[in-house]
Structure formats: structure tokens, C-alpha cells
Amino acid sequence: MAEELILIVEDDEKGQRLARDILRFHGFSTVEAGTGEDGVALAKERKPRAILMDFQLPGIDGIAALRRIREDASTAAIPVVVMTASVMKEDRERFDRAGFDAFITKPLDIDRLPEQIREVIERGRA
Which of 39, 81, 121, 123 is least crowded, fewest Cβ atoms below 10 Å from its Cβ? Predict the structure, then answer.
């Protein structure tokens, strides 16, 4: 596997570092953003293979950031995975309606995260 670029959009430094370290250990390259706005800008600039995005972000939230990513033809096909501690059925349904390609719960499963990202990349946009 060539190093595939993953954009991590997470405002919590520890969470961002954990996701970055796990993915890099498993052969991915990463770029990180701490806000939804910065995530959208980096998606346009770097064209990652997938985006791992926290739902609760300063500024625009994950759904608003996803909407901006989908509205831009240059980023619309990038799979976006929502990452959240919200596990209520209503939350999952809202994320599905918003158009996220997958859902990952926090705390992150260190053993499972790389495989989840690979699955999203292989599946592409749902």
C-alpha cells in the first residue's frame, strides 16, 4: 500500500495525536486540522484519500464541514468518516442523513481504526 493521505479534523489535541499516531504506524500519511473551516480548506488543498472528522468542532460543526466538502466538485468524492462519542440511535440516523460515509465511535479502537479507514477507502463514496 502506498502511503495514503488521511485528513484528521479533530479539535482535541490528544485525540488528534492518537488518530495520527495510529494511522501513521499503519502506513498512512496524515494531515491534521483543528477546526471545520481548516478541515475544508485542507481537503481542497491536499485532496486526501479519506477524511476522519470529529462532529463537535469549534466554528462550523462536522455536518456543516461535510456539506462544504460535498458542494465542491474537487472534494465531493472524498469519503468522510464522522468520529464522535455520540452513540444514540438518533445521532447515527442524523449522521447517515447528512451523508457521512461511515461512523466511528470514540474512544477510538486502536486495533480497529486502520482497518476501518482501509474499508472506507476501498468502498469509496457510498
Answer: 123
Please state the φ and ψ torsions of residue 51, each to the nearest 5 degrees. -125, 130
Which residues, 6+ apart, have CB-to-CB distance to 122 below 8 Å?
none
Strand order in the sheet with 5-9: 29-33, 5-9, 50-54, 80-84, 102-105
Place of cell 495514503: 4
- DSSP E strands in the chain: the ranges are 5-9, 29-33, 50-54, 80-84, 102-105
CA distance 123 to 114: 14
Domain 5-123 superfamily per CATH:
Response regulator (3.40.50.2300)
